[in-house]
Amino acid sequence: MSQSKSTSILDARILIPAIGDAFRKLNPKALARNPVMFVVTVVSALTTVLLFRDLITGGENIGFSFQIVIWLWFTVLFANFAEAVAEGRGKAQAESLRRTRTETQAKLLKGDDIKNFKIVPGTSLKVGDVVLVEAGDIIPSDGEVIEGVASVNEAAITGESAPVIRESGGDRSAVTGGTQVLSDWIRVRITAASGSTFIDRMIALVEGAERQKTPNEIALNILLAGMTLIFVLATATIPSFATYAGGYIPVLILVALFVTLIPTTIGALLSAIGIAGMDRLVRFNVLAMSGRAVEAAGDVDTLLLDKTGTITLGNRQATEFKPVRGVSDQELADAAQLASLADETPEGRSIVVLAKEKYGIRARDMGSLHAHFVPFTAQSRMSGVDFDGSSIRKGAVDAVLQHVDHATVASTNGTASLVVREPQTAREVQAISDEIAKAGGTPLAVVKDGRLLGVVHLKDIVKGGIKERFAELRRMGIRTVMITGDNPMTAAAIAAEAGVDDFLAQATPENKLSLIREEQAKGKLVAMCGDGTNDAPALAQADVGVAMNTGTVAAREAGNMVDLDSDPTKLIEIVEIGKQLLMTRGALTTFSIANDVAKYFAIIPAMFLAFYPQLGALNIMGLKTPESAILSAIIFNALIIVALIPLSLKGVKYRPIGAGALLSRNLLVYGLGGIIVPFIGIKVIDVVITTLGLA
Amino acid sequence: MTINGWIQILVFCGIVALLVKPLGGYMTRVFNGERTLLSWIFAPVERGLYAVAGTSEREEQHWTTYAAALLFFNLAGFLLLYLLQRFQGALPFNPAGMTAVPPELAFNTAVSFMTNTNWQNYGGESTMSYLVQMAGLTVQNFVSAATGIAIAVALIRGFSRASVKSIGNFWVDMTRATLYVLLPLCVVLTLVYVYLGMPQTLGAYVGATTLEGAQQTIALGPVASQIAIKMLGTNGGGFFNANAAHPFENPDAISNLIQMVSIFAIGAALTNVFGRMVGNQRQGWAIFATMAALFLVGVVVCYWAEAAGNPLVHALGLQGGNMEGKEVRFGISMSALFAVITTAASCGAVNAMHDSFTALGGLIPLINMELGEIIVGGVGAGFYGILLFVVLAIFVAGLMVGRTPEYLGKKIEAKEVKMAVLAILCLPLAMLVLTAIAVVLPDAVASIANPGPRGFSEILYAYTSAAANNGSAFGGLTGNTVWYNLTLGIAMLMGRFLVIIPALAIAGSLVAKKTVPASAGTFPTDGALFVGLLSGVILIVGGLTFFPALAVGPIVEHLAMLLGQTF
Lengths: 695, 567
Description:
Helix content of chain B: 55-70%
Number of domains of chain A: 4
Order of helices and strands of chain B: HHHHHHHEEHHHHHHHEEHHHHHH
Oligomer: heterodimer
Strand order of the largest sheet of chain B: 1-2
Number of strands of chain A: 20
Strand content of chain B: under 5%
Distance between the termini of chain B: 28 Å
Number of helices of chain B: 20
Radius of gyration of chain A: 35 Å
Distance between the termini of chain A: 53 Å
Largest sheet of chain B: 2 strands, antiparallel
Number of helices of chain A: 24
């Protein structure tokens, strides 16, 4: 992940334009999206009219009215400001993306001949066109490689400068418009028309232009609108109660009570929280195609993780030499090392390393030994070395056993050879390999001149710290399932070592899909990541499908998130980000509602003081005057929005300590805190404004 | 406050707590359609009724069908009761020769009994014939209670079932609630009440010559049977005008205790039915604990306020607690306890005059009703009422565990929130808006007995009681006017059906959802934390709405009293 993309919350480059945006967002059409703030705007406008009326007719206490009206408008502006700041961070990133999307020329191919092309502007390309992209060219639009191999610089979208390989066929065939081919050439079939390419979508996403309210946000808005209505009833009935008591309450004071009671804090910050959540993912180099996907990430119950690359390091390593009876460790190690000297695969290299570390067998020069390397082929499933008339082979156990058999047959045909069939040894090799397989390893048999020497234990290396991550996930209530092509025995062993809850062995695209459906039928939400075309159905079926950026177009289309770094372990962080988004929303809703207690105690005694002075006993904060009490409450109500902008952008920290502990912690901070904080805040503001002589 | 008073309160709480499990277990079997102890008597009756009604216990209803059946049934009950009152003069069982009830009063009374409110703008012994009392009022006492239980059970099914469309069958639930739960308990209670000295007769009123030689008519009637269902079904409509303060309706301390327990019994047991049906009794106990916590706070405050008495009266040389409007055979503790129970539970029966309570003592019954009577509440109604608050509480705070809100594995989404908000919104709408209109209407204000905040409280209490379907009166207010008969009737309808329909809609929406299995990341809803959260949401969302109204009513009155002022 590139840290350069993260922007600090209090960056002047974002804050200053946000002030202007706060005013621009006073546009009623924009405000109507947010019921609470829309209502505040309406009553602010109403009180402004009343203020002007009083100015003309010369009403009393104009200074106080003026301050109330000002703070009402500030409440609206602060809400707009919060949203603008949240959007600002995305905008900054969209800017840098736009810069990379330069006008390109495309080499449109007419037929199969790559010499025969016409230069056209990139924007004129249609889906299905085939273009040639050569070294140095910018890929004109999203597409799929249909011929050739090339190294591509995708820094424009990933921020990662190391080039990646793109080739036809397989799982690395997708190319993104705006990235640059560094070497070789490829033929690309265009899959996205200009304006709807990946980068275009990215820009739209980070700018928040396509932001739709998520289901939970919609539900929350309903609740907030409902509470606003309840407080309309609570405040609109007060004048009549006052009339009964022979008193009168000015509209301005009713409005002040109303605005402080309705959940303005969460109403103001709700969309900022949502935007910031998406933004956190973007800065993490993950693109969520919808807010719904981010929300679903928080709800994930089951995580499907591919074994290779996610749970284990990509390559197996030799960890032990297991000779058969009558063969020393040293002898087996020596033979295995010789057979691997020219083997450039990670497995081969790890054998050389193990032989050196454990038995001090140093690397020898193949040339001086007159050795001839026999490479691995799919037919023989063995590799090895021939030198000085002897031959060493290492390979899959069944292949090696067959080789030995074959050699025996050859010798019975009369060829002079030392090869003898040794059934006990073969059985012993079989037993050792079974043991290794049971432990999750891969056995590699070694044979020298037809004589079975023993087995090398190749082991999947479980990534460091991954077990702790899974324990953490378990505490979060998330079940992990390892997906692997290995046989069940091996899979079980690795699953146990890595600490996953379950595994799917000998996985095929079909049983992967049916596993997801099964989990979903139980009411669970499933997250997975994948890159191949055959992952596409499962990615589409999963509630959170994270496609790797290196993957195929089909996979990228099927998932609802794209990981630009193509790092499957990120699923875990994606879940955390989803949870953080939901928690922040809940924390601020709770805080906002809990705030009401103090506001009642500030305003009610002040409101009725004229005709029920006894209610002064409810003024437990000891606020100086009725005016200062009302003003303090409304100022607190406006300032708390600004004070909580950093929290709503950063998000409430998620701790995997179990739901019960997390809830009690958050209830204490945001629930109880929400009751207490305004008592202190309003009192402090009261002291300040009475000292300044404002009320 | 006395040790004796506290002991009596604790005895009451203990008995209710002990009843929750056995009664809950029995009711669960009844509503799951399993065999029970009484099946051998009632199963044939039940089958017969279904055959007549053309339904079957296997026939399940979508929530809209369920709601339509319920509305139809209630409308029919309303019409029947209205006509019985209007024509009682021409109908039998009318030894006292009562004449037709005026239309607006008949409307008010019919709505009142259909909605399980039992607000009474009439004196029973001077207005209603035995036929109306038995075939009209008592029948509604049963079926309105059974309706409430049916809705609660339907809503519980919303949580306990998954991925289906139907929430049960209204006719079946209603029949079972009446036959297996209400009827047998009422039979036992009636016999006990008769044993304790309550009249149970169809004979005429009795004439008596007093010691001074004056002639007195003593009203009688089938009292015991009506009192049994009045309490058990949280109806509260008294046979006599004095309600449970009348010696024939509530002869002694034992009958008082039995009545109080029977008010709470079914409502409290429903929490256990809930727990059992969703497969975790602790879930039910958590809700019971929330109710208990809110209840005990109310009892302590009310008892304390009444026992402390009025300093203005103390200044006149009368020491001790506030005994005005209370029966000496119950005393302060049992009057305060009764007042809290009856308003917590939507019963509305009274054994003391609430208008004579101190300001704070009267504040508790008001708050109980304004919260929507979710502290045990009306049979069924209290339970579905508190579940609406559960939906809100879960929605507000549930996000704080980092998952979208879910309760018992059901996701709480836009539709549930919308319906819960609608239901909760209807209470301030009926209580505050109608009060706000009445307190500025000279005709309506003319009905109050006391000036100042107390008079305000009388009106507020009337609409609160009506909208909450409680039915208790603060007293003091002359309610039998055209204005109050109509508006109180409207408040009762709003408070009943604007809650029922959303509750059933929630049941219908939940029942179709999958159940997400609980995990370590799931919001725990069976512990003290949840009890605290739910209580907090109930008090802040439900209670604070009424803070301004309470401030200019009982609160200012109390503060004035402390300052030695009167109005």
